[in-house]
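INTERNAL AUDIT FORM
Audit reference: QA-55
Scope: verify that the stored structure record matches its stored sequence.
Auditor: D.O.
Record contents follow.
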Amino acid sequence: MAGLVPAIPTRDTLCRPKRDARVKPGHDGEGWLPDGYFMTVEQGPGPAARHGLYNNAYLVLALASLCWSGNHLMGRAIAGHVPPLTISTLRWLLAAAVLFPFIRGQLARDWPVIRRYFGVLVYLALIGGAVFGALQFVGLQLTAALNVSVMNSLGPVFIAAASAAMFGDRLTRGQFAGIFVSLLGVLAIITRLDPGVLTHLSFNIGDIIIFINMILWAVYSASLRWRPPIHPVSFMFMFCLISGTAMLPLMAWEYSTGFRLQPTVLTFSAIAFVTIFSTIVAFASWTRGVELIGPNRAGVFLHLIPIFSALLTGALLGEPLMGYHVAGFALILLGVWCAARG
């Protein structure tokens, strides 16, 4: 990225925003977003910020988890039928195409800032978009749903570790308790309250891919504090455009191997779902949630994914709600509550 943008900020060079009445007393006021933002890592949304979906961190993070739970089910449904690198490329390019008509004017106004921070945009799009999205679909096609759930449950832990390693962020007691309790809830659902299930897990290359992917996601989530000070939809458009463009060579290689899209209802349904919900809605919601309350508190909301997955499976496939689901749901919601208050 040398020569494209100023040096990527470090903990020592991140901007310190002007103190604002909305910053809680006792906080040091250190901002974790680029210049132009005032929200701090430890600060929750103020009273005015809690009105409306887009300004409610807890609702947008829950919405992101709901969309990604559907993405996991869709990923398993298309395994072996839809080329993973192709759909991963199309999701970004189609999302950019959908957003462009609504953002053209704002994009022109944001262009000077986009040029200045283009290297940062490329960095975020590669680790959080192109590479993460591709590995997610590949991993889902190579491993069992149970193993994916186990790996994904580590997401909040990895986010906390990445934030600490990269920026020196520390977990509060409430955040630590929230991650721990909600993790127990996830394990209750995964194991069906039988710890012996974990001892019989077998891992393969797909599990390693998902494990590495969760580390990438943690780094991306921690790095969102470097997001350029541009309109959120401008950021989403550039994120999708860069991610899709970066994936084109891999899509071409996959096509050359003979694994190609087939014109079926499943194919078009999968592409439409991942473009609208798993990409535009989910990523925009996650970015906003992290902006409002920081990555450590946002990370625990990933543990809502098993809840939504179980509910969607029950609604779509008729699978009954069991006692271990209820126990897991209760622990996860308690953990989310602890983290939100922490």
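Auditor finding: record pair retrieved intact. The chain has a mean pLDDT of 81.
Action required: none
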